């Protein structure tokens, strides 16, 4: 990356910080994203959120956002010590471009789970080769449109009939090709993936997490669940190192330590 590019990334993040601090709520990207996330999760029953980038340079973004979001807002206790009576934190996952279309987009379009999606597709590429980038962007746009509009039973019947299928064949297949649509998704279209836009994207998601934590009345800045695993690890390493049989843990842990030592 280099120091100069890192400085540029910080400038992009600072620009988003200023936007979050000063922009009206109706035009504030982190606020809108945070509110949409609360709406989909707490009112529409969504349990996960996909981030799908159509640029190879953002291939690791979903993994980074998993830590940003799930480590921050995966909490069950409010700041006043009471237990939250609603869902907090979303399962964040995703990947890159057209490869993912053949992995899990079927679930997004016709599955029984409501999964909001962020599509990130830059308008300009670093590697212009023929029509490769226009086609890549078109794929992202088409997936977004398909999630929004879907395809009705009437549209499927008309399409199949026009292809020459008999009425009986149409009725056998039609229901399977219906896509309900109205699946929430956002298209984020930076001009180009640069250190500045990458910094702004990361900062946008960070502020989104803060907005949601504030609404849920949880502290987004501690990780006591992670801390417990570290404390237990410090204790269990002594059991792993010991040549003696471990019998003072729970039966599952005793058995797993025994298996490791075999």
Automatic annotation (TrEMBL):
Catalysed conversion reaction: alpha-D-glucose 6-phosphate = beta-D-fructose 6-phosphate
GO molecular function, one term: carbohydrate derivative binding
Keyword Transcription tagged: no
Protein family according to the UniProt entry: Belongs to the GPI family.
GO cellular component term, pick one: cytosol
Keyword terms: Gluconeogenesis, Glycolysis, Isomerase
EC number: 5.3.1.9
Source domain of life: Eukaryota
A Gene Ontology biological process term: gluconeogenesis
Pathway stated in the Swiss-Prot or TrEMBL entry: Carbohydrate degradation; glycolysis; D-glyceraldehyde 3-phosphate and glycerone phosphate from D-glucose: step 2/4
SUPFAM superfamilies: SIS domain
Region (Disordered): 243-262
UniProt cross-references to InterPro entries, sorted A to Z: G6P_Isomerase, G6P_Isomerase_C, Phosphoglucose_isomerase_CS, SIS_dom_sf, SIS_PGI_2
Species for this entry: Capitella teleta
Annotated protein name in UniProt: Glucose-6-phosphate isomerase
